[in-house]
Amino acid sequence: MNRLKHERTKLLTKEEAAASRRWFLVDAEGKVLGRLSSALAKILIGKHKPTYTKNYDCGDFVVVINAEKVVVTGNKKREDGYLRYTGYPGGLKRKSIEEMLQIAPEKVIKYAVKRMLPKNNLGRRILSKLKVYGGSSHPHKAQKPQSIDPFLVAYGRPMK
Fold this sequence. Notes:
Elements (H helix, E strand, L loop, with lengths): L4 H4 L5 H6 L3 E5 L5 H13 L15 E5 L10 H4 L1 E5 L6 E5 H7 L1 H10 L6 H7 L2 E3 L13 E2 L2 H6 L5
Parallel strand pairs: 1-2, 1-6, 2-5
Antiparallel strand pairs: 3-4
């Protein structure tokens, strides 16, 4: 029989995408910031799933612990940083990654992942599934997050 291509294709609904969400636990200790962030972004978006659809939020929840022990290579710790503007003339403020790791280590990972997501409503919704904590404890024990290697899930191989 001659069937049309779209008759064989099964489409994912929003309800099915929400039902298949899992919770993952990632330990950031000793991991390089950029590589970790790209793997987390892939998991949050859902690109590691065969049911990935770019216009749906079909990714998983990710809990990151030990954010203060993340590694930044080269001189980026001192040279790179974050800019914010207060709204007043001459109010451009800059903080290096080194300062941010001391003040708020959670924000360093959150900002890195945020910049790898779509810049729209879907990207903001995806980012809300990322939970980052500076220490080794987290309040999401009731969800029973599964401890994983983010590189193995996102890329199918462990990072060197």
